[in-house]
């Protein structure tokens, strides 16, 4: 079986555009995964748990707190986008979080992230804005939008 950390790093390396600076480094991901409140979901192209013969092509990492969970990272490999995997992964996250006692899910993203339409399609609603939160490599700044979904 492939190491989940290797899988996450490989998918993230292909999925996150470096211009936005959103990808985590290996130490950040490993540190988060070491925490007992962090939960990982991995899916193959056919929405199954990965095996050595059928590797994961998408992942999500969440952090639980009493009554809520926060989506920390999510990625679908570019070769597998627009096939419903993002929707399936977000649905699975909601089911798992509800099973752990969460009443709401949260996420934060840059204001121009095209994934906003995916989040809205599965019930996330914008609830807040952090002005000039993200600093880009050219020195410009973008707002962060906080979304929530009631479970």
Order of SSEs, N→C? HHEEEHEHEE
Give the full name of the CATH homologous superfamily of the domain at 4-108.
Gcn5-related N-acetyltransferase (GNAT)
Number of helices in the DSSP assignment: 4
Helix content: 25-40%
Features:
151 residues; alpha+beta; Aminopeptidase; six-stranded mixed beta sheet; 6 strands; 27% helix
Describe what you observe in this structure.
- It is a single chain.
- By secondary structure, the chain is of the alpha+beta class.
- The protein has a domain at 4-108: Aminopeptidase (3-Layer(aba) Sandwich).
- Helix content is 27%, strand content 34%.
- It contains four helices and six strands.
- The chain has helices spanning 4-15, 26-33, 85-99, 116-121; strands at residues 38-43, 58-65, 68-76, 104-110, 125-135, 141-150.
- A six-stranded mixed beta sheet has the order 1-2-3-4-6-5, sandwiched between helices.
- Helix 3 links the parallel strand 3 and strand 4.
- The chain is globular.
- The chain starts with a helix and ends with a strand.
- The model has no long low-confidence stretch (mean pLDDT 94).
